């Protein structure tokens, strides 16, 4: 290690360039990781906040909440401890008095019972008690909608009043609003439908494992799914994760190749030096340890600077950007980048072991 450190001090510019490459690759990998995690949270956050174990949908819906079509009477076909009817609506919201298309904000809306256990926690105001009332997430407040405001959603003529605010919440990457089942029906179907045949999209189950849920439906049109299986089928969720993670994994391979090429070229330039060292009795093992220690130090410095740049960038990113750093992912990716940097340095070991001291010093 001493030999490697002394060489890095002597050739500052050369090794600064190597560190610069590692910094850039680490920075891109960390930013992609933050974007991938932010997008994933934006899609699944609303479902995670249910703290549910399972969801029951119509069997022909292919695990799609929007495509599922059930009725209130189906609740009696599900044997579970806690089961909550749920309706979903996707549309656009605009504040009363702001009627331009540019004023509209895309939203998702869940309709639940007034006493439902899957309602998100409030940070301001109260829950809806009657038709015409909604609660909105903080991410809609950031877009200019406030407690007490009246808004219009979709083609509904009636104005809806904001009576409560929750923490940041989203579903399918857009802000998630909650309201009553009756209000959801009026939004989606233009009227309130009461009784056993009142439509809903799904039944959320809490406190009962998926395998323990019993469906007693005689028509066999119900299907139960674990929450994670349901999330994996949310539109675009698996595809975007697969794409962004693939880009990160390719960056790891590219990092190993770049570091390997840099160290290999620098090793070739030092062939004569290694020949002299071997002629003086310094073993291959000592030289190899020096190279590995050198690439380890380069990797650690480059990754640490990449982490600092990513954290600083996170402070200035706009709130609308779905960017969320996960400390565990950041740690894992940092360790992987350091390991691949060391592996890149290992490529040049064969060259060192084949250096002939007599040829290297011109004997």
TrEMBL record:
Q: Name one Pfam family in it.
A: FtsX
Q: What does this protein do?
A: Part of the ABC transporter complex hrt involved in hemin import. Responsible for the translocation of the substrate across the membrane.
Q: What are the record keywords, sorted?
A: Cell membrane, Membrane, Transmembrane, Transmembrane helix, Transport
Predominant place of localization: membrane
Q: Which family does it belong to?
A: Belongs to the ABC-4 integral membrane protein family. HrtB subfamily.
Q: Which domain of life is it from?
A: Bacteria
Please tell me whether the keyword Transmembrane is annotated for this protein.
yes
TM segments?
15-36, 246-265, 286-310, 330-349
> This chain belongs to which protein, by name?
Putative hemin transport system permease protein HrtB
Q: Which residues form the ABC3 transporter permease C-terminal domain?
A: 246-357
Membrane topology field: Multi-pass membrane protein
- Can you name the source organism? Enterococcus silesiacus
Cell division keyword on record: no
Protein localization: Cell membrane
* Subunit description: The complex is composed of two ATP-binding proteins (HrtA), two transmembrane proteins (HrtB) and a solute-binding protein.
